[in-house]
Amino acid sequence: xxxGSATFVPSNLQPVASAPAPHxxxxxxxxxxxxxxxxxxxxxxxxxAGTALGLLLAGAVGGSRAARRKWAKRNSTARLVxxxxxxxxxxxxxxxxxxxxEWRLRSAVQMKGDAWPTPKNxxxxxxxxxxxxxxxxxxxxxxxxxxxxxxxxxLKTSDFFTVCKTPALSAELTLQPLRRYETLDAMIIFSDxxxxxxxxxxxxxxxxxKGPKFEFAIETPADLAKLNxxxxxxxxxxxxxxxxxxxxxxxxxDVPVIGFCGAPWTLMGYMVEGGAVSSFxxxxxxxxxxxxxxxxxxxGLRDIIVEYLVNQFDSGAPLLTIFDTNCGQVPPxxxxxxxxxxxxxxxxxxxxxxxKALMSVFPKDGEIAxxxxxxxxxxxxxxxxxxxxxxxxxxxxxxxxxxxxxxxYASPEEIMKTTERMVKEFGVDKYIANLGxxxxxxxxxxxxxxxxxxxxxxxxxxxxxxxxxAPKAAASHGARTMTxxxxxxxxxxxxxxxxxxxxMQKGLAExxxxxxxxxxxxxxxxxxxxxxxxxxxxxxxxxxxxPNAFATIFDVKMFLTVKAxxxxxxxxxxxxxxxxxxxxYLAA
Length: 588
Fold this sequence. Notes:
By secondary structure, the protein is α/β, with parallel strands linked by helices. It is built from 21 helices and 17 strands.
């Protein structure tokens, strides 16, 4: 049998007795068609059920046609749940066979870690590999969610985490956007980033109007003992892999299924805070109060993530995304120290185990230049980053993003105009059109339609990749060269203006006064970190210090970051040395 070519037609599907049975055509015909345009029949016979689902399992792996016939006979409870509500597309939840997991595991063994059969629409995968495409592929973060009436309808009968743990329901929600927006180039499995902490022993529930909440939080390092740092991933998270596998069968391998997880830092943030919060102050304090324990926790999460993503790939997800939603919550230097090494390790290790896997990362509201020197294939950008800056920071990667989600409230004309401009600024080559973050619960369903239409209008002939302009010399606007003496006799020459150097000197003086108060304080206290940044053209100078890490003013070292375009220099520099360099520059 050729892999991915088998077709199974279940002949015993029955509609729910209490609901009138609508006429169903092939999945392609269902996408985007409003419920009012679908005709109905008096009954759903076995032939029409076969017409509806005859192609759903094409692309499945494992077993012969005879084995599939045996499966049909054995699993007589498979059914199609169909309901019609005004203005809401048909609910087409399909129950998988009872031995879904065994089927998946047999298929994974047969694949031997290799790539699954290519989807009919492989535009997304080509773009991720940096290959030429006719126009930019597109999908939307949180494209299966609360803005869709059909999603809300299904959630009336089940809670959020039960849906995540039920492959039939997870697959149905994953498919809903594809039916409504027929030109989507990918699906992302309906799940949640917090399933990993749950697998580690942190029960979680959805609190109405607030979001996910754990039964306990990681308040001190002693709480780490409550966690299982080496959970049985195939067992505890097998429902996610089952959902990916079942979704792939149900979509007839039309488009790729994207797998995902949360990054170690983002997961740690939720675990320390105890759930969803408006700011992650406690998590940030954890980094500074318990730096070694923070690294230990994130390293443990890192290892679980690697196994989790490898299993997602083995279940049929060719592109794996890491969402670091909390990236922008910490200074770039802190992120580089605590978070970047683990992210790079994950990409490298997943690809070592599964060379055909495509890896994507989304460091929301943070810098992305570090990812250019990594094994990630795709780098997502927030709407806070311009396409030009993103191309300069990651010239070797496929970029993804970055429409402001709030634009989807605007008129279709405004959405299309802005989206077309965005695609042309990024260029079609090595680009995946997406939002700068996820869909919002109050989004109108018409907004994504205009977004998709605009992306489709821009062909590669209209907008190939723009050339990355060389970094502008920052020696304009009165800038003079300032020499910064770094560690081990190294130095760095920076074009700095008089005003920039004066502001830095003033900032350091305020830091020194604050540090003196810290030393003189009778009771120990935690002080806010010091941050200074100066930007001109493509040059930026950033200075960071955690005063709580030093006992005396003579011990203080500042963390310096100098960036010019995609060139970046980082180094510790003693406070006294930086003060002397500024004095010498201003005195000249």
